Amino acid sequence: MDRLVLRVGRDMSGEQVERPPLSPWEQQRAGMGALIRHQRELANMSLRQLSQATQVSNAYLSQLERGMHDPTVRVLLQIGDALHLSLEEMLDKTKAVEVAEASVLQVEEAIAADSILTDEEKRVLLIVYRSYVSSHAERDLAAYRPGVVRPMAAGARPAIPT
């Protein structure tokens, strides 16, 4: 059974607040939006440029990137064409992001449930863990660009698809 975890965010004054958990549908929408934004940024495109390439308003594209709307298949196809991604690649990558996020939640739940660590130790451990996850996510998303060959760093090994 899935456990829902409250999300933590900041209000307008910068104070930390708890937010209700995302439903699975909202998680998918947020994952697709994050993928679209990241791929647009990798392509060095502004929202306005993507809007012109897709004939979709930049306001609507912005809302999609923030996970506020469910895109139609037609819109996803137009975005994919502009970013040189197939619909299948976009959906596969979004699913991979969701699986990774579920894994992160399990680790965070385990840290929060630990009876040995103090609250301050848990807080610091979560900060460090999230920073590692964030840097790995950025690296993994940057590596995912179908059809584009990226130079490898000296001594680096090619990634083996899983």
CATH architecture: Orthogonal Bundle
CATH superfamily: lambda repressor-like DNA-binding domains
Average pLDDT value?
76
CATH topology-level fold name: 434 Repressor (Amino-terminal Domain)
Total helices: the number is 6
Shape: elongated
Description of the molecule:
With 162 residues, the protein is mainly alpha-helical. The protein has helices at residues 24-42, 47-54, 58-65, 73-83, 87-113, 119-143; strands at 7-10, 16-19. It has one domain (7-143): Orthogonal Bundle (434 Repressor (Amino-terminal Domain)), CATH 1.10.260.40. 60% of the residues lie in helices and 5% in strands. The longest helix has 27 residues, at 87-113. The protein is elongated. The two termini are 26 Å apart.
In short:
Helix content is about 60%, strand content about 5%.
Question: What keyword list fits this structure?
Answer:
mainly alpha, 434 Repressor (Amino-terminal Domain), two-stranded antiparallel sheet, single chain, disordered C terminus, 162 residues, 2 strands
What are the SSEs and their pairings?
Elements (H helix, E strand, L loop, with lengths): L6 E4 L5 E4 L4 H19 L4 H8 L3 H8 L7 H11 L3 H27 L5 H25 L19
Antiparallel strand pairs: 1-2
